[in-house]
Design a protein that fits this description.
This protein has about 160 residues and is mostly helical. It has 2 domains: about 1-55, no CATH class; about 55-150, no CATH class. The chain is about 80% helix and about 0% strand.
């Protein structure tokens, strides 16, 4: 049954779009998209490019609009707890990043663990008041590093090197 659903979805959307869309999902981001593309037998460079593009697409919108959106949502009772949680999450990452600013944010985003990706990095940058050019450069650099790490892990390069 699961295989039939998987096959239907892949035929409907395609492998490439699955990777691209997966990379756009918060928390999963390219840390899940690159292994997915590897499992779907996508060429490593195509997989890398799709995951990077999908992961970076939401970043400018987050940087430009998240503060206003959160301010608006905070006044709506059903969103109040979620906004406080997001602000607390950003505040938690802020200390790690603030000391080294641009490089700190890039390193934070580059760590290939859930919760340290482009979405959280962009949120932290926006809530820190980091200027857009510096924030986008930091997030892009971090996403590229995370993409390289995940590609090496997903395609077995690290395992192959460790073998020798």
């Amino acid at each position: 049954m699961v295989e039939a659903i998987e096959q239907f979805f892949l035929e409907l959307v395609g492998k490439e779009l699955c990777v691209f869309l997966c990379a756009m999902i918060p928390i999963i981001e390219l840390r899940g998209a690159i292994p997915l593309g590897a499992a779907l037998d996508l060429h490593p460079l195509l997989n890398f490019a799709l995951a990077i593009a999908g992961n970076l697409l939401p970043v400018p919108f987050i940087l430009l609009f998240i503060r206003k959106i959160l301010d608006w949502m905070e006044n709506i009772r059903c969103f109040e707890k979620m906004v406080k949680w997001l602000r607390a999450k950003a505040e938690k990452g802020k200390g790690k990043v603030e000391k080294y600013a641009v490089i700190g944010l890039a390193i934070f985003v580059a760590i290939p663990l859930p919760g340290t990706g482009a979405w959280t990095g962009a949120l932290v940058a926006a809530l820190m008041g980091m200027r857009f050019p510096k924030a986008i450069i930091s997030v892009v650099a971090g996403v590229l590093c995370a993409g390289v790490i995940m590609s090496l892990l997903s395609y077995g390069v690290v395992a192959a090197v460790a073998w020798f």
